[in-house]
Structures are given as C-alpha cells and as structure tokens.
Amino acid sequence: MSPTLTTMTTADVEDDQDERVTINVSGLRFETRRSTLARYPGTLLGNSHRRRQHYEPATAEYFFERGRHTFDALLYYYQSGGNLHRPVSVPLDVFVDDLRFYQLDEKTIEKCCANEGIFRQKPPPLPKNPFQRKVRAATR
User: Fold this and answer.
1) For residues 70 and 94, is the Cβ–Cβ distance under 8 A?
2) Partner of 56 at 20 to 30 A CA spacing, among 15, 106, 116, 121?
3) Angle, nearest 10°, between helix axes 92-101 and 106-115?
4) Alpha carbons 91 and 115: distance in angstroms, whole number
C-alpha cells in the first residue's frame, strides 16, 4: 500500500487555532500561535480572512513588507493582552502608520499617542444658534 499524499490549503491551516504561525516581516521571521492573534479579531493579524491575503503557501508563512522593530512591539501587544509601547528607535509617525496598516482600532492608537504625550484636539462644539452653526460647519 502506498502512502497517501495530503496537501493542506490555506483554509485547513487557518482551522487549527493552537497551531504555530510564522510571520515574515521584511525577512525577519516571528512565530506565535493563532490563538494569540485571535485575541484581537478586529485586526489584520487577528482576523483569519484578512490575514489570508498575505499567506505565502510556498514558504508556509505570512509575509509583510513592513518595519521589523514595529512588529516586535505589535507582537507583544497580542501576547501581553493589549500592552502597546513604541520602540525608541521607531519614529511615532512610522509607528502609527504601521499600527493602522495592521488595523488596530483608533482608540488603541490614540491611547498609544497619549502615552507619548500627544493628544488629539477635539474641535470646539458648534454654536446653538442655527445660523451660526451653519456658518461654523461650513468653515471646518
């Protein structure tokens, strides 16, 4: 009797939540469990359907051409249950851009910026008078 060859599809790979997953970020490989990424299903890495478009079947890994140092902090975010700290070597605007690429929610990004001492200013409230309200809204 000859051995049977089995091939795994991307869908088969995604089904096992405790399986290890390899993530290649610009040539540097990281390893974690699918269940760790699944803690934040609203993000690119946490959502198997969104993540699937970055899967490379030839190497059985996910490939992202992004900043390596940013990814260290991002992976720690998943592993620590939401602790996010910008590495000193990564400029804040680059860090925020990568966080948006990986689809972290704006509340998390704003909290990270607040930890850096940068606060987003809220626009002043519109006047109660309908005419003034219309004029102010048009100038925004």
Assistant:
1) yes
2) 106
3) 160
4) 14
- List, edge to edge, every strand of the sheet that includes 20-25: 28-33, 20-25, 61-64, 55-56
| Interval 17-68: pLDDT, tens | 579 999 999 999 999 999 999 999 999 999 999 999 999 999 999 999 998 8
Region for 67 from its dihedrals, namely left if φ exceeds 0, alpha if ψ lies in -120 to 50, beta otherwise: beta
Count of H helices and E strands in the chain?
Answer: 7, 4
Domains of the chain: 11-139 (3.30.710.10)
Residue 79's identity, in one-letter code, is Q
Cα gap 39→44, rounded to integer Å: 12
CA 58 vs CA 10, 19, 61, 107, 119: distances in Å? 11, 18, 8, 36, 44
Residue 119 one-letter amino acid: F
Per the CB < 8 A criterion, the answer to whether 40 and 58 are in contact is: no
User: What's this model's pTM, rounded to 2 decimal places?
Assistant: 0.71
Q: Give the integer Cα–Cα distance in Å for 96 and 83.
A: 15
